Amino acid sequence: MEFVLSLISEEQKMLRDTVVKLCQGKLKELEEKAGETNVANREILGFLAKQGLLGLAVPGKYGTGPEKMSLVSFCLVREELARTCPNAELIFTMQGLGSGPIVTAGTDEQKQKYLPPVATGKTLITFALTEPSGGTDAASILSRAERQGDHYVLKGSKTFISMAPDADVYSVFAKTDPTKGSKGITAFIVEKGFPGFVPGERLDLVVAHPIGSIYFEDCLVPAANRLGEEGQGFKVAMQTLDFFRTTVGACAVGFAQAAFDEALSYAKKRVAFGQPIVRFQLIQAKLAEMAMKISAARLLVFQSAFLKDSGKKSITKESSMAKLYATEVAQQVIDQAVQIFGGYGVCKGYLVEKLYREIRSMRIYEGTSEIQHLVIANQLLKE
Questions:
Q1: Dihedral angle sign, alpha carbons of residues 152, 156, 161, 164
Q2: Phi-psi category of 196—alpha, beta or left, where left has phi over 0 and alpha has psi -120 to 50?
Q3: Which residues, other chains included, contact 347 with Cβ-Cβ below 8 Å and sequence gap of 6+?
Q4: Hey, is 216 helix, strand or coil?
Q5: Residue 182 forms beta bridges with which residues?
Q6: pTM for the complete prediction?
Q7: Is 366 considered catalytic here?
């Protein structure tokens, strides 16, 4: 981390220090109070807003953050939250991901209406692209939106939507012209209270997570809530995901660092055969490789983030590399941490056991590891 700290601004160092202190104080208390839960915690949402962290995803004109979104800053915060405050990390991330399409393609009126409540924690927002039949193949979504006067009639469903069904506002993607494939997808801002919006069931994952399905039964969406022009939705979605894919890597690094810290601490205290197990070379080798891989993953994450903040037009290759490598490495590091803990590593109540369950989904969402390989290769061929 020292190398990254040597490159960031004093303001960003202060931001990171603030997050670290929050995670050691009040935010940690709120996390322990919430526990492992599948319900979005509004108390944590409000606390993050009060501390000004949600403003990082909302340009200053419409919220409390800087004039321009900084990917470096977002990664710094997401990594630190992931280490000790996973509920806060998820809420922080989804406020950014959900509002991303509005920041990218919204009109001034749409931004004025929807972004300030996101920054102040009054509105819980999320991103709704995935469908039961789609998954990684986002261009094949089946949801439809048909223009009827000053409204669109939205039909279909979404699943694996973080913050559903708790969220108040959803950035939704549906096809307005099914004959055009991905070029027929349009983005919309959908409020939970719109007629025909049906909050669905919660999904039961291996680790408790606020996530569920939502349904649109002839849902009436005002035409004024369309984001951009018809047919621009897929581009809006990909631009948003390009930014946030890098931050998935930052979260994975945070999980891996937490597991490493736990394993190192335990290895120093656990005595076997008359001495702490950290004295054994096999344990030392595990720790050395874990530390090396975490550092390499972190550098890939911040390479992508720095390039974005410096003005690089596309970071598709770099963000895919960061997401792919960091999530795969985190899986390996956490697995080794469980191995160092031995039997206790698979006991409920131990952090490494929870991280073992937590990390698995990161190699799937926002593009599977297999898809990231294809994306990277495609970018290399273009170059």
A1: positive
A2: left
A3: 353
A4: strand
A5: none
A6: 0.94
A7: yes
Q: Cis omega (within 30 of 0) on the bond before 116?
A: no
Active site residue: 358, 366, 370, 383, which one? 366
Contact 161, 213 (CB under 8 A): yes
Amino acid at 102: I
d(CA 118, CA 259): 32
Query: What mean pLDDT is predicted for residues 244-256?
Result: 97
**Over the stretch 47-90, which tens digit does the pLDDT of each residue have?**
999 999 998 888 778 876 677 789 999 999 999 999 999 999 99
Strands (E), the chain: 125-128, 144-148, 151-162, 169-175, 185-191, 197-202, 211-222, 226-227, 271-272, 275-276
Domains and CATH numbers, the chain: 2-123 (1.10.540.10), 126-231 (2.40.110.10), 235-382 (1.20.140.10)
Coil, strand or helix at 44:
helix
Whether residue 73 contacts residue 7, with contact meaning beta carbons closer than 8 Å, is answered with no
Cβ pair 172, 158 in contact under 8 A? yes
Q: What is the pLDDT of residues 190-206, one digit of tens each?
A: 999 999 999 999 999 99
C-alpha closest to that of 162 among 111, 106, 208, 114: 208
3-state secondary structure of 248: helix
User: Is 97 within 8 Å of 240 (Cβ atoms)?
Assistant: yes
